[in-house]
Amino acid sequence: MTVDKNTLRTLLTATLFAAGSGAYLAMSAQSQQPMSFFITSAGSGDGANLGGLAGADKICQTLATAAGAGSRTWHAYLSATGANGQPAVNAKDRIGKGPWYNAKGLQVASSVADLHSDANKLGKENSLTEKGTGVNGRGDNPNTHDILTGSNADGTLSTKPNNTCSNWSANTTGSGSARVGHHDKQGGGDAPNSWNSAHDSRGCSQPDLVGTGGAGLFYCFAIN
Fold first, then answer.
1. Contact (CB, 8 A) for 93 and 151
2. pLDDT in tens, 153-192
3. CB neighbour list of residue 169: distance below 8 Å, 6 or more residues apart
């Protein structure tokens, strides 16, 4: 069979393109950064009772392990008041130095300072669960954009009294409140565009959290 020059040129071009595309895809797969940030796909189911900071960290670790990222050490982005001889804890001091990437390999923040600046890449599109799925925001049904933090906008412990639901151990109405952020950076509250300090919850029970637009979800970061 005789192949003319134009046909041969077309075949060679197609072959080179396919080879180049395969190499590019392989390089992209190898270069994608592993996940180091996510929103929990589920809360404790017991309101703001997460079992304290240790319990919240365990939830982060368990979810990360199920998603294939259990080789890293995960901490919840939560602040806590000083208690039982222990000093107060700032959420920003628990999460390592960064950079942090979501489940799709997108860098959401390069450092602690970047995370707490207007330059971070957080928001509804990029603040994903450990499964790589989005979280309902304002306008969705149900709206679950309230994310537990107990923190001021700079990542320090909320200056309001009992704004951490008794250090993440309370699950009833009348047992304080939780400071929450809006993962979609929109909604109501005194700072509606804040990802980590938008407003307070009605209380600490699951109905309280749901009633103000949440589900008891929180942020998790790999510290290494």
1. no
2. 999 999 999 999 999 999 999 999 999 999 999 999 999 9
3. 49, 50, 51, 52
